[in-house]
Amino acid sequence: MTVLASIGELTVTYRRDGGKVTALRSVSLDIMAGERLAIIGESGSGKSTLALAIAELLPSSSADGRIEWPGLGRTPLLGRDIGFVFQDPSASLDPVMTIGKQIAEVARTHLGLNWSQAYAKARNLLERVRLPDPDAALHAFPHQLSGGQKQRVAIAAAIAAGPKLLIADEATSALDTIVQTEIVALIRQLVAEDGMTLLFISHDIALAAELAERIAVFRHGRLVELGTTARIVGAPTQAYTRALLDAHIGLDAAPLLDLAGRRA
Ligand SMILES: Nc1ncnc2c1ncn2[C@@H]1O[C@H](COP(=O)(O)OP(=O)(O)OP(=O)(O)O)[C@@H](O)[C@H]1O
């Protein structure tokens, strides 16, 4: 397997209220080309900071360490090489631009298509993310869609230029459980169809285990455990990972137990 991105000794410090907050501490991690990797941890553990650092989207902060792209062979361009889906689709969609134009613009900018080709691509993407009535949706504005539908549009825009890496940062956290399951299934399907690498960021270990082949556990800005999903769920080495798993036992343990191979 090729390494898509290699993160070495990455430390990120934000300045806040005259002081400093260290969000990532000496994190080293290889993201393999074509894998589905989940980053999990409690709020404030540094998950989003890692995602932003990879996408070169960090706000004013100081970052030490390296991020290299052996599997890409060039510095990635956000939108073209990296698609980013945020928790709140309203934050990434322009409220006064039609859905079709927002997606078409990504395709036009990064793929060099003319408007007519870009709109055809947008329509096809709306179909792929299973938005009901893609023709009508092309001319709709974000406020006319539900939260789940808006997230489908944000996903369509994120993959419009055929990125190698899709980063989903708590992309399903604001949705109700049924819609959440549908969006997870959709992400899984699109990633498989387009051969993308997935970085799935979540505070929810059960959801991460459903989707990812490997899980990286973060705590207080450190990578504390990394392994295959079956190993992390079935035989975690860190008390912290065990505590994250235990928090799910009793809520809905079945999927996790299935993964650990403890059930028939
Ligand atoms: N722009 C910023 N300025 C100052 N401090 C920040 C900034 N962004 C994040 N932090 C701090 O960095 C630490 C890590 O935050 P980060 O958002 O990366 O964690 P997270 O695991 O993604 O949390 P959540 O799940 O709540 O989004 C936290 O202490 C947070 O308060």
UniProtKB/TrEMBL annotation:
Its main location: membrane. It holds the Pfam family ABC_tran. This is ABC transporter ATP-binding protein. It is a peripheral membrane protein. Keywords: ATP-binding, Cell inner membrane, Cell membrane, Membrane, Nucleotide-binding, Translocase, Transport. It is found in: Cell inner membrane. One of its GO terms (molecular function) is ATP binding. The keyword Transferase does not apply. SMART domains: AAA. Residues 7-245 form the ABC transporter domain. It comes from the Bacteria. PANTHER family: ATPASE AAA-TYPE CORE DOMAIN-CONTAINING PROTEIN, OLIGOPEPTIDE TRANSPORT ATP-BINDING PROTEIN APPD. InterPro entries: AAA+_ATPase, ABC_Ni/Peptide_Import, ABC_transporter-like_ATP-bd, ABC_transporter-like_CS, P-loop_NTPase. Belongs to the ABC transporter superfamily. One of its GO terms (cellular component) is plasma membrane.
